Amino acid sequence: MQHACGTVFGSLIPACAVPAGLEGFFQTFRDVIRSEITPRAAENDRAGRYPHASIQALKRCGLMKAPLPVALGGRGFSQALSQEVFLELGMADPSVAQIYKVHDDAVRELLSVATPGMCQHLAERICEDQAMIGMALAENGKRAVDFGHVVSRPEGAGHLIDGRKIYATGAVGADLLLVSSYDVVAQTMRLDLLPSGTPGVHFVEDWNRLGQRATASGSVVLERVQTRPEWSVLTPQSEPQVHAPLRYQNGFSMILVGTGLAALEAAILFVREHSRPWASAGVAEAADDLLVRRLFGEIGAELAAASASARTAAGLLDVFERGACSRTDVAIPVYAARSSASRASLRAGSDLMAALGARATDAAYGLDRYWRDARTLSLHDPVEWKHEEIGRHLLTGWEPEPGLYR
d(Cα 49, Cα 215) in Å, to the nearest integer? Predict the structure, then answer.
């Protein structure tokens, strides 16, 4: 079974192995990518708008229930299989990939900390209504890990929430919005899952970035948002998954690899159809220029290595969940994958242009968006700290403790 993007990669990037029983779903999913996601990506980028039509297409094909266990009516995707979805969506439209990633990550996190009753209700909303989850968690503190600016206090049967969230990917089009706040009375963090249309939730159109422009990852203002007891996620027994931050990190790597592969595919097609060979090459077709071949081969090799690294790390997430390896055994490969995916994707989006010729800069082709998307997504957290952490592990045996970005 081939990637949604076709066969231009030959044997360089193998398609993922689809588990038995899911072949039909993946065929439908890839048809949706080809017919509805990819054709809209460039225009969504130009307009900088939330990709409503693309998200609706993913809902219709049943992707929202992919991370739900079969026992709850879902498709029971492993973490590694969901990460393959991120990669393929990343090839089609990295903004759509990131929005869906938020949903997938949120479902897995909620099922690990919520009550059985909430889990059942969540499963019903996803299976019956194709409900999508968005997040409003990050806050504008002096440090990326500073929280407590969005506060809540008991009011009536629930709580009142006030404050402002930033980087709220997926929030605008979400059917359910996961919101964190600091309970100033209990002096604890809380999570609430707010239904779409909850009074007091305001979406601010302040997302105007270099890339990932269609994620609409702007601010969310919460003004005296009244919650209900059944929306509260956490219980005294809730324990966050210690590998959840690693899953988030590797998901970004998969989207970055997908973005780089999309840049490579676009460049391949451009050379075949539009590029003119340089006179010094002494050839009739640009594809026969040995320097062009060398550059494509080098960048293709880097993307193949990044893909293999990110896929290996994705598989280790499931190994850890089965109790068959340590968290460090997952963390260090995840950090390595993030490094290689960031570099390979950025280089594909930028350096391949050198082989295409000046006409490739025409806005009609939209070839700049691959680098812009990769550059923006790669800045989610500094990759140099991944290098420091790998180096510390190698030199001292340090084992990374669980943390928001570890």
Answer: 7
**What fold characterizes domain 23-130?**
Butyryl-Coa Dehydrogenase, subunit A; domain 1 (1.10.540)
Strand partners, 51: none
CA distance 177 to 155: 20
Report the alpha-carbon distance of residue 98 to residue 203 in Å, rounded: 18
Residues of the chain with pLDDT under 70: 1-7
- Among 258, 294, 292, 268, CA closest to 370: 258
Q: What distance lies between CA 261 and its chain's CA centroid?
A: 15
pLDDT more than 70, % of the chain? 98
Question: What per-residue confidence (pLDDT) applies to 148?
Answer: 85
194 burial level (CB within 10 Å; 0-12, 13-18, 19+):
buried
Of all helices (H) and strands (E), which one includes residue 190? strand 188-195
What is the CB neighbour count within 10 angstroms for residue 304? 18
Domain ranges of the chain: 23-130, 151-231, 244-396
Indicate the class that CATH gives domain 244-396.
mainly alpha
pTM above 0.85, yes or no: yes
